[in-house]
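Re: the 528-residue chain
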Amino acid sequence: MKRSLVVLLSMLVGLALCAPLALAGDFTVAVGAELEGWDPHTAIFFLANEINWNTYDRLLTFETIPADESPYGVEMIDSTRLKGMLAESWELEENGKVVVFHLRKGVIFPSGNEFTSEDVRYSIERKWEIPTASRWILNVMGLSTLDNMVVVDDYTIKFILDAPNAIFLPGWAFLSTMSIVDATELKKHVTDDDPYGHDYLNLNIVPTGPYTLESYVPGSEVILKAYEGYWGGVPTTDRIIYKVVPEEANRVLLLKSGDVDMAYFISAEQVSSQLMDAPGVNVFSIPTAGSQYFCLQTTREPLYNTLVRRAIAYAVPYDDLIENVMYGFASRATSPVPTLTAFHKDVYPYDYNPDKARELLAQAGYGPGDITLTLSYRLDNPDEEAVAIYLKDALDDVGINVIIDKVASTRFSEMRGSQDYEMALLFWIPYVNNPVYQLSYGYHSSSGCCNYGRYTNATFDAMLDAAKAETDPVVQEGLVNAMQELIAGEVPIILLYHPNRQITIRDNVTGYVYWTNFLVRYDVMSAE
């Protein structure tokens, strides 16, 4: 690494403290994939979530830590300090089982409609009722029936939880899927076949946040326009332009030349070789709780066999991936609960051991060449392409034939949603950095949208259900530890590494705030 990370991060101290004083012009972001599927209550693709992050508000958000006080030298959220967004205040009753939100009055959405409790009620109802929506998230947050959502008056709404729930409040701040839609406006677009306007919202927006949709050219760009009547103040940048640039090399060139202000999906190799010392470019590399993993479809032969899954885990050259693919911008993943998360425990027994992998395959009844599997990954992610090549070579070495399937991003999102693959490279960042939330997301059998390997284990489900309701942290930690060990033994996914968040941005950009969910909120940013 040619430039010290410490020096790089310290440079952002000055950057973050220089707040723009007037509304600027355009802020352009080069992305590598198509931008669609925006329904805020069903979206799972990162870019769709970020568009929602900037066009819809939630009830809560977080205070921030100034750059000179944060551990990474960059202004970032403080997930221990909630503050109101569309909710002006809130209170807990019955020892936290009942949560009452007092909503902000006088908020006018871009449509001209006033914000009321009906917008909150309808948003939660449609999240609950749309078949593809993540109802399970509401369950994890403690809401088991819509009857426990009570509209008190136009500016007060109450939620009655199954039990006090540590995820409920931060979930409203962290999750883009907890966005509030403009109910009055959206109801104009519902039909008998589409009673909650899901098809409409996949390509349209009924905004409640600082930006509206100005234009969308499929395969080319999305332009968001500042809403000058936004309750939180006029956004600092007039337009956010997401420009689709499929080739990574072109995204790098555009950033270096200053033709874009920020670039996404830049590989660790390009960050190291092209951007670390590039004039006019700042690179910030921040450790995260995100996990890059190798998903196995546990319902299909031969991957339903635990011995085969363990063999694959021993065949992976973990250190090579971190050193030669991620150029050191990553750390080993040793548990389904990430290193930066409460109750993390090193339980992963798998190191690179091809002889052990061959031995386990033989125990499972498979010889060299008996197994052929297809490995799918997203074509807009250059790091994943390099990982796929490493994994193919490593599995070939232990006698497993691998066919690489490079998939367009839109199609890959569909495959991920339906779990229509044998093996896939996936990345997940815990929007709520809570171990119970994380284990619910990836491993509970009821997590239809996000248990991408279709893993099912009744013992695990029972422990997780108990952990959700447990209020004693010592007992909850014991349950979380037992679940980590169980998952490590069953190995429904192969944990590869925790990648750093690579922020590649022009050095004249001000107002950037790091969110641990990776989403960027642009209403306080500008390029001077």
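The chain is about 30% helix and 25% strand.
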